[in-house]
Amino acid sequence: MKAQVAKDLGEEYTRWLNSNMLAFQHGENPILSTPFLDPFNDGIEIQIDESGGEVLLHDSGKTIDNLLDMGVQIETSERRQALIKNAIAGCGVRLNQGRLETVVTAANRAQRMHFLITAILRLNDLWMTSTPRSVTDFFEIVREYFDAHDVLYTANKSITGRTVEHPIDFIIPLPKGKDRLIKLMPRPSLQAAKIISFTWVDLQESQPDAERVVLMNDVLGAGDESGEMAVGKKPISENILSILKGYSNQIYSWNEAMNDNNFPEKIRRAG
Q1: What DSSP character marks residue 175?
Q2: Cα separation of 23 and 20, whole Å?
Q3: Residue ranges, the chain, pLDDT below 50
Q4: Would the CA dihedral through 235, 72, 157, 161 be positive or negative?
Q5: Counting Cβ atoms within 10 Å, is residue 119 exposed (0-12), middle (13-18) or buried (19+)?
């Protein structure tokens, strides 16, 4: 029954993607408009360039431009440049002259586009806070927490699923050769919940024994340049939780983790 539900979700998600993709021409370049949204609620667009037998997918520089429009200065801050490198690590994507881009072949076009969209969403999430001019890097905060509590992990590793590869934020080894796969949700949304659920479904064949964990940022307020986060809690939509519960073994909020003295042991040990 569960396998059929997972299969149905995969097919439903694919139909949703197909029905919400729009291809059009802008000048000489074809562009694919996706259903995934940028910070201004516009569809993320992927431009396709072909030159000298090489096919390049890129964001036309819009991701960085959006951050600049939000008041985030990149070139003058080494910390922000480091945040960008961490955000796109493991996605096979490079930042080149302000553009996020990836080179593709006929065999990996779909996978590379998936990686490029993932990198764009990760980068957008860094600065999608209640105070746009502040910087909050949820990935770095979680990594520092794991380091402080001696949690053994591998960060930013891609795992091959049934259809594409999926970047996993943290992989924690468990006894008997099992792994705990952790996906972060820096900015909880229905869109992010659907993507994570699709990741879990697509990895079921290649990682049948892995534990699938989601760690959500429910901290109210924004971070500052030191990475400190304000105290407070923002509610998580029941619709988001409902989507995640069907395919995740565990779902934790950051407030829940910070208020649980046993959380380091829970995340380290087999459940």
Answers
A1: G
A2: 10
A3: 129-136, 222-231
A4: positive
A5: buried
Domain positions in the chain are 2-126, 138-268
Q: Report CA Rg, the chain.
A: 19
pLDDT at residue 213, rounded to an integer: 96
Strand partners, 101: 58, 94
| pLDDT score for 54 | 81
Cα gap 270→211, rounded to integer Å: 9
CATH of 138-268, one of 3.30.460.80, 3.30.230.10, 3.40.630.30, 3.40.1350.10: 3.40.1350.10
Give the residue carrying structure tokens 């900015």: 187
Predicted local distance difference test score (pLDDT) of residue 158: 87
What is the pLDDT at residue 271? 62
C-alpha 3/C-alpha 201 separation (Å) is 9
- H-run or E-run covering 11: helix 2-20
Angle at 44 (CA atoms; ends 38, 49), nearest 5 degrees = 140
**CB contact at 8 A, 29 and 47:** yes
Residue 248 falls in which region: left (phi positive, over 0), alpha (psi -120 to 50) or beta: beta
Question: How many CA atoms, within 13 angstroms, populate the side-chain half-sphere of residue 114?
Answer: 20
Given a contact cutoff of 8 angstroms between Cβ atoms, the answer to whether 67 and 53 are in contact is: no
Percent of the chain with pLDDT over 90: 28
List the structure tokens of 244: 């995640």
